[in-house]
Amino acid sequence: MTYPDMGIAANEHSQGGCSESLADVYEAHADFVWRIARRFGVAQTELEDVVHDVFLVVHRRLPEYDGRASMRTWLFHITRGVVSNRRRGKTREAKRMHLVRAQPTPTSICPEGHSERVRAAEFVRNFVARLKPQQRTMFEMVELQGMTVAEVARLLNLNANTAHARLRAARQAFYRAVQARLARDSGGGPCR
Fold first, then answer.
1. Distance, CA of 29 to CA of 43 (rounded, Å)
2. Residue 119: which of 68, 181, 75, 168 has the closest Cα?
3. By CB distance 3.0 to 4.6 Å, which of 73, 118, 144, 191 could disulfide with 110?
4. Is 8 in contact with 59 (CB distance < 8 Å)?
């Protein structure tokens, strides 16, 4: 005899700590495990998977069963653990999916918005290329790479006041360049 859908022989666990085989345990207690899983709040559509997982654990641990507790008590605790693990897994997956959904997808950007982003990126590249080398370094590291002014000052062995002055000059030049572009374009934003 074989455990349904698992290909496990009925007498595979007859040696060891328990005199019952997996098939015997399944036949006698599958309905109990099903009911307990349902009481733990497992959705009807997932019950079969949970019961299957419980009996996979039983298959692995049946030789360890020593009979100190009743078989139903032992199965109750295994079922509770399986349900708990599934809930934790679903919570982790929901958090990951929330992070994935929070990021904009390329299909969620309209063509006008995409072309505007491309033009903006080109504008920034051209602006940075025209900056004086010392200002360019400060602007790139602070504004584009996200470093702090203190970090860049230490990295470049600069006085903090000098680093701030270079960044301030670069930011002012960027502000003027953006204002000039806006005046030149005098158009609206993307996806109106």
1. 20
2. 181
3. 191
4. yes
Residue 106 gets which letter from DSSP?
A: G
Phi, psi of 3 (to 5 degrees): -65, 130
Residues in the chain: 192
Band of pLDDT at residue 78, cut at 50, 70 and 90: very high
Q: What does the pLDDT read at residue 12?
A: 43
Q: Which residues is 9 bridged to in the sheet? A: 2
What's the CA gap between 138 and 128, in Å, rounded?
10
pLDDT at 79: 95
Q: What is the topology classification, in CATH, of domain 2-102?
A: Rna Polymerase Sigma Factor; Chain: A (1.10.1740)
Give me the residue label for tokens 């899983």: 37
Looking at this protein, which amino acid is placed at residue 6? M
Structure token digits, residue 131: 């900056």
Task: Please give the average per-residue pLDDT across 162-169, as a whole number.
Answer: 93
| CB distance 3 to 55 below 8 Å | yes
Token digits of residue 14: 């007859």
b/e map 151-176, b = 16+ CB within 10 Å: ebbeeeebeeeebbebbebbeebbee
CA angle, corner 141, sides to 139 and 144, nearest 5?
Answer: 75
Fold (CATH) for 109-185: Arc Repressor Mutant, subunit A (1.10.10)
pLDDT digits (tens, 9 = 90+) for 40-62: 889 999 999 999 999 999 999 99
